[in-house]
Amino acid sequence: MKMETTEKKVNKVENDKKDPVIVIKNLKKSFGEKVVLTDFNLSIKQGTNVVILGKSGSGKSVLIKCIIGLLKPDSGSISVFGDDITQMSYDELNESRNRVGFLFQSNAIYDSMTIRENLEFPLRRHWVDITEEEIDRLVAEGLESVGLASTIDMMPSELSGGMLKRIALARTMILRPEIILYDEPTTGLDPITSREIEDLILSLQKKNNASSIIISHDMNCVKHVSDVVVLLLEGKCYTESTYAEMAVSTDENIKQFFL
Amino acid sequence: MSIVTNTKEFLDETGAIAKFTGRFFTTGIMPRYETKELLNQCYIIGYKSLPLIGLTAFIMGLVLTMQLRPSLVDYGVESQLPVMVGLAIVREIGPVISALIFAGKIGSSIGAELGSMKVSEQIDAMEVSGINPYKYLVATRVFAATLMLPILVILGDTISLFGAYIGVNIKSVTSFELFFLQVFKSLSYSDILPAVVKTIFFGFAVGIVGCYKGFNSSKGTQGVGISANSAVVLSSVLIFIIDLLAVQITEVLGLN
């Protein structure tokens, strides 16, 4: 436990030297009268796992949907690898999405396709010169990395929730994204499967040296995977710290998440 | 107040459908083409609809013939039965009935499929993978519906004429050759061509409305049901509106 904390402190020092891959400035997003994000600022460095903590409905999912371009912010800027995605055309945005992966809370597996076709789908469209042998190898590798090689020709309806989550993770990783956004990756899973998913997130992130933003209410997951924890409160970045520092905080707004 | 609100909603919806349709011409028809998915949709939308269209067309031809006969007998023109039935089927009843059956089967299936993909975030998953879901899901289905309906209507008309031939022979005896000779003698290109051309627009309307409703489905199972239902209702109404416009155009062009 102490070793883990020391390791994270070392990581934090190393991370401080790296360039940010995502810079969010003065982000504002509202739906009608309801203001969800207001003057939100955040900077994420390469190879860092940032967990966004916040109450249900506080705008965490809205934030990552703005980062991937599914929602257009009202104002502010979101710079991904130095390019402001809020100013990009549709084609430019699609191009930049090659470098960003997104794991949906609902998994969003294409249910009319087999598992193989689900993994092949982004490969065939992004890497147009790829050979059939290469596709087969990458799909097999992807499934092996999540321990589900045997499901390759199965339909999504034949798999359990935990297995689908792993398949979704394999599909997210297949294009080797440099940034991965996770929307509640362990919600609804049993503790053992949750731990397996957390381990997978860490191992795949290490393998690709990716940066991650993870939205989670699961404090075990937060503790296990986070380098930095950001508390989203009333549409703003209330605080940004490590799990260990937050766990001993006397601030009431922070304490309520660690009870 | 409610009239104002309803009018605004109607205009908003019309504008949104027009924008969605415009996107088909600016994005949907541009490369890269999803050929494999297009062929898959042609198989689902065209080939799998053939038994239903064929059956209804056959019954329609048979029933129409049996119901027309007494009136023609009264006027002493029973021999004109193949001509009457042939013209009615090829010019109007065949295309419209087949298109309505097509709207019921394909419009609802596209609306429900895309609606369920929308609520389960599968469309968003395509979007975030950098794949244009409009090209993959909408363009392929609209192209397939536009291409397949005219073919289905031509096949349906043929099957319907067979039904009519059987209908004629229930109460009298007419040879196969004589029946079809009379039918084709009475038909000209100006009967066949406008009827086929309007089915291209019927198919396009069914495809685009089904996709629009599915793509804009609200969350939840109820939203998917509403999408499927409203896709059928709206595309059926559009089929009649297109038919009305088509008859006016053919009238102006002197093809009636």
UniProtKB/TrEMBL annotation, chain B:
It holds the Pfam family MlaE. The keyword Transmembrane applies. Keywords: Membrane, Transmembrane, Transmembrane helix. GO terms for cellular component: ATP-binding cassette (ABC) transporter complex. It comes from the Bacteria. InterPro entries: Permease_MalE. The keyword Ribosomal protein does not apply. One of its GO terms (molecular function) is phospholipid transporter activity. The chain crosses the membrane at residues 50-69, 81-103, 142-168, 192-212, 224-249. PANTHER family: ABC TRANSPORTER PERMEASE PROTEIN-RELATED, PROTEIN TRIGALACTOSYLDIACYLGLYCEROL 1, CHLOROPLASTIC. This is ABC transporter permease.
